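Input structure tokens:
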């Protein structure tokens, strides 16, 4: 939820369409980050992915993961946290695979 100054109610900024793996849904969101452009990044351990939600978007895009639990290099199993570096990489804490994975977000 996003709250504007002096608002009486919040605005759904990501998800809000129930639990699931559709591009309009989140499943057990764990961590979020909002960049300077208002883009929201969300790690959801129930859908095994990290999503990007541009400001005012009605649906997100998957940037890491496949929406299905797995051990392959492109899969996650309950991502709990993530961080970005200055080179355009995202580091994801892949909790149930007992690893931290690095993915390039540039190009």
């Amino acid at each position: 939820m996003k709250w504007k100054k002096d608002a009486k109610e919040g605005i759904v900024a990501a998800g809000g369409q129930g639990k699931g793996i559709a591009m309009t849904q989140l499943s057990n969101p764990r961590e979020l980050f909002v960049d300077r452009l208002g883009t929201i990044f969300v790690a959801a351990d129930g859908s095994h992915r990290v999503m990007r939600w541009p400001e005012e978007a009605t649906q997100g895009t998957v940037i890491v993961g496949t929406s299905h639990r797995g051990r392959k290099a492109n899969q996650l199993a309950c991502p709990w946290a993530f961080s970005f570096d200055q080179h355009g990489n995202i580091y994801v804490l892949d909790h149930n695979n007992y690893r931290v994975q690095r993915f390039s977000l540039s190009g």
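The mean pLDDT is 91. The domain at 29-104 is CATH 2.40.10.500 (Thrombin, subunit H).
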